[in-house]
Amino acid sequence: MRIILADDSLLIRAGIREILVSSAHDVIRECEDADELVAAVDDLAAAGAAPDLVITDVRMPPGNTDDGLRAAIDIRSRHQDLPVLILSAYVTGPYVRELLNGPGADGAVGYLLKEKVGRVAEFLRAVETVSGGGVVIDPEVVRHVTRADPPRGPLARLTAREQEVLALMAEGRSNAEIAAELFLSGAAVAKHVGNVFVKLGMPSGEDNRRVKAILTWFEYN
Amino acid sequence: MPLRPAGRSWPQWVAGRLRTRSVWRTDLPVFVTAVLLSVLSLLVGFFGFVGALALVFSPVFWGFGIAAQVGPFTPAALWETLVAVPAGIALGAVTVGALAGISLLRDLLLRAFSGSRNPDLLAKLEELRASRASLTAAFENERRRIERDLHDGAQQELVALVMRLGILETAATATDQARIVQLARQAQAQAERALERLRETVRDIHPSELSDLGLIAAVRELVARSPLQVELTSTGTDARLSSPIATAVYFTVSEALTNIAKHAGVGSARIEMRCTESGVRVLVGDDGAGGARISTGSGLSGLRERMRSVGGNLEIISPPGGGTEVVASAPAQPPW
Prior knowledge:
The complex is a heterodimer of chains A (about 220) and B (about 325).
Chain A: E1 2-6, H1 10-22, E2 26-31, H2 34-46, E3 53-57, H3 67-78, E4 84-88, H4 93-101, E5 109-113, H5 120-131, E6 135-137, H6 139-145, H7 160-170, H8 175-182, H9 186-199, H10 209-220
Helix pairs in contact in A: 2-3, 7-9, 7-10, 8-9
Chain B: H1 10-18, H2 21-56, H3 58-63, H4 78-115, H5 118-174, H6 178-205, H7 208-213, H8 215-225, E1 229-235, H9 243-264, E2 268-275, E3 279-286, H10 299-309, E4 313-317, E5 324-331
Parallel strand pairs in B: 1-2
Antiparallel strand pairs in B: 2-3, 3-5, 4-5
């Protein structure tokens, strides 16, 4: 996979690059700030060599606030299908909402805490999921935005178990993993997932139901 | 403001006051003037109006066989009492005029005594205000600097360490060294816990959403983190609010929610936030125990100081048993 990597810290870039390269990915460009990232993506896309994935930090020069997130949203407004994985130092709802509500294809986005790169196997799977059009949200962020108060909107139609399953889907888990986590059979999980789709108004045959369900979950949490 | 600061006895306080120059220059002359002139207007009013009434009604008294004496004047015939009526009206008018004159004089004197050094005082007040504002700003900048230092320094190093340990674990897995894999995982978990702690500390110092996404988003995030069930309503946009205002309001809301969780004995709260072009007003309310008071050194008085330092204010309505409402308001820009 051809990947663009943006982070203002050389130390962090070196760590991420080493992990990606060890898994036979190519880091085709490294950027130190948000402007450089946007320019690099535009250049490559113009040359017909768009990357398969953009990995970017949130807080970066030039503004040193949420420039990386702004760059990601900007990139997705012009390169709709380009997968973007955000690596952040913050466990916070608003950034993720900005990203998910932003332009671009539904899905092909991820938001992970930066240190999760150290869980090498999980990180590499997240890279695959996002570049394949899926959504991966860091479990800590999912836990954080899951509210204690009663669910709203279409989520109110879900049972407690279905909510639990949907939250795990938001973390980018497969049905088999959800089954293992909740001590359920694969068939039971498949049934819950099916119920989630039906209750959220996603008929079978519709594309990308998993991603859409996750986006709905985020919107109403 | 309390007349006598807590921790000082009455004799100490009086002695201290007597040594203060402004007591002799301002307080005492103001007091003496006020007392003397008030007594004067009481006397003038009393005798003037009593005399006027006696003159006006002297024909009536004459009818009852009484010759009403007013000062040197004692009527000797009916026609004299009739002349006394307009004289009484005139005396009444003169008395009113005299009272107005005395009150004007009192105002002038009081203003002269207390206002003579006002330009001086006003300049000092302005200076104090400016220095409070710059202290608050310096404090705020310092918080941001610490937050940035932690983010760019310790946090980055720890993240890099976690990644290194991940690489170590992968290498050990590839060469099938179970013991090293296990140790690497433990070390990684520990480093992650350290990061989590650090992240919480950084948040408390200065939340990133506040500078990145504004007050409303930051308060929404506060609500999401609160153990309370909070009903948040918000109108308007926060685009016009300056950073010191947004920060002061944010920490006020944060502290108010913490207070509710600690003292109110309830599990829910409400926040009503209104942002306009000219400023912001936030109400944080609960239906709990009430009885909260702003006393010196309490968290609430600190919050009020903070709001005032940016030109805002904080009010508390908290009858015992009747819940508590904390209302913070501030202009969009500090007025200095």
